[in-house]
Design goal:
Low-confidence stretches: none
Number of strands: 0
Strand content: under 5%
Number of helices: 4
Number of domains: 1
Helix content: over 70%
Largest sheet: none
Radius of gyration: 12 Å
Structural class: mainly alpha
Order of helices and strands: HHHH
Shape: globular
Length: about 90
């Protein structure tokens, strides 16, 4: 089962990683994109806590080294929000 919203978020982060001028942001974004890609096809979907940690990292990157790709990070964040809106729990 593919979780389309997480896959789309992963693609947005890969795009941001390729576009940022910061090596540190590029590395973090590539790592987060890989995490979301794995989560999009895992047997079990991620819980709110895991996704909240990823979104927190996006906020951190967007306000720091990755501010040059903040708009793309916002798109990825929106995809994650869309996925989380259907999750049970918190």
């Amino acid at each position: 089962m593919t979780r389309e919203e997480l896959s789309a978020a992963s693609e947005a982060l890969e795009s941001a990683a390729e576009s940022t001028a910061s090596d540190a942001a590029r590395e973090r974004l590539s790592d987060l994109a890989a995490q979301l890609d794995r989560l999009s096809t895992a047997d079990r979907g991620p819980d709110h806590g895991r996704l909240a940690r990823i979104q927190s990292a996006l906020d951190d990157i967007g306000s720091g080294d990755g501010s040059d790709v903040a708009e793309t990070l916002s798109v990825a964040d929106d995809h994650i929000d869309d996925y989380r809106s259907d999750l049970e729990g918190v």
